[in-house]
Amino acid sequence: MTALSEILGINKLINAVKIGVKTKDNKYTTLDKFLSKIVEQGTTENGSYIKYDNGILINYGKIKFNATTTAWGSFQIYDYKTPVTFPKAFIDDNIVVTAQCNNSVFAFFVGSLGVTKDAITQISVGRGNNASGEVTVVYNAIGRWK
Question: Whose CA is closest to 42, among 22, 54, 60?
Fold first, then answer.
């Protein structure tokens, strides 16, 4: 009896197909050459970070503060202006930061962030009506370390 793999030629196909990426000089290299490896990671009092060998740095953490909103047009806002230093500084301020409020009592939203290569300098949170209470902002910041 002939094995199904022989009939379908799967073994030959597997050996013939090279999964890879075409480089600038029209040669192929394996995909793992383009995947980055973690070179350093850790946690400080300001959050956590991951450094990759391709120069990408990810900082992430939580910021907790008490907020009492004040009227601003049809919204209620609060500006938290105490700088929050990143666990690891970026090489420049070309950073993408995402942030969200995790709060089961008050439905705050993050309105804007002030950011430098070293810190989040301001967080504006808001909501539809006046409120006060503890707010937790979870952030992810992505940029370069080299």
Answer: 60
Average predicted confidence (pLDDT) for the chain: 76
Ranges of the chain with pLDDT below 70: 1-24, 26-35, 102-109, 111-112
Our CA angle for 90, 92, 93, nearest 5°, is 95
| pTM for this prediction | 0.69
In the block, tokens 């902002």 appear at 137
Dist. CA 21–CA 30, nearest whole Å: 6
Beta bridge partners of 92: none
* Residue 122 to residue 37: CA distance in whole angstroms: 32
* Nearest-angstrom CA–CA distance, 94 and 32: 27
Residue 65 tokens, joined:
């503060």
Three-state secondary structure call for residue 132: strand
**What are the tens digits of pLDDT across the range 82-108?**
788 999 999 998 998 888 876 655 556
Reduced to 3 states (helix: H, G, I; strand: E, B; else coil), residue 6 is helix
List, in sequence order, every residue forming a beta bridge with 68; answer none if it has no partner. Answer: 132
Cα separation, 25 vs 92, in Å, equals 31
